[in-house]
Amino acid sequence: MLQDILDAITAETDKQITAARSEHQRGLTDLREQSERRLSTRKQEIAVSKEQRKAQFKAKAEAHAESHKRNALLSKKRELLDRVYAKITVDLSKLSDDKAEKLLRACLKKITEKGDIFPSKKHEALLIKIAPSEQFAVKAVTSASGGFLFSSKTQENDFTFDHLVQEWLRPQTELDAAHKLFDA
Predict the structure, then answer these.
(1) Number of folded domains in the chain?
(2) Which residues fall within 8 angstroms of residue 81, CB to CB, at 6 or more apart?
(3) Residues 14-41, mean pLDDT to the nearest whole number
(4) Containing domain of residue 153, as a range?
(5) Rg of the chain (C-alpha set)
């Protein structure tokens, strides 16, 4: 009888041990599965993040390249416009005295005060001839390609061809000139 009790206790204990082992195995399997799911999810998140960073990097690189290209193009356009306006200045300085006289007279009429004129070497004789001596005193020549500088106690004006082209003509015509030169 004692043996039957011992056998029953041993059988029950073996059953409980088998159940505990089975429960432990299920727990380990669940933990492995959860760990694998978390690992898989994390790998997917990393892959997505990597693709997003690659796309961002590519977009930045493309934007930088496009910006560089646009800046180079704008720089070339600016250089071409500079050459156009420099040629205009050169062409103005080559005007005959008859044509230059009209322009210089128009400039002189804009001055209302008495003062000194500093002519370019090219237009010194012409300005001595056309500038009213009661209003203007012709002084030393400048290195300008054409035109003159005016100075009085209260006013200074730059009527050199360089200044007229860069500060008067160019701001008024640059947009139209750029459209004519660069629009297809």
Answers:
(1) 1
(2) 174, 177, 178, 181
(3) 89
(4) 95-182
(5) 45
The CATH number given to whatever domain includes residue 130 is 3.30.2320.30
Residue 159 lies in a domain: yes
- Give the pLDDT mean for 14-29: 88
List, in order, residues 6 or more apart from 121 with CB less than 8 Å away.
141, 142, 143
Question: Residue 156 contacts by C-beta under 8 Å, 6 or more apart in sequence?
Answer: 149, 150
Q: Residue 46: its pLDDT value, please?
A: 93
Is residue 178 assigned to a domain?
yes
pLDDT attached to residue 81: 87
Q: Note whether residue 115 is domain-resident.
A: yes
Residue 44 lies in a domain: no
Q: Return all residues near 68 (Cβ < 8 A) that are at least 6 apart.
A: none
Q: Band of the pLDDT at 10, cuts 50, 70, 90? A: confident
Rounded CA separation 46/58 (Å): 18
Nearest to 84 by CA among 170, 158, 2, 24: 170
Look up the pTM and report it.
0.63
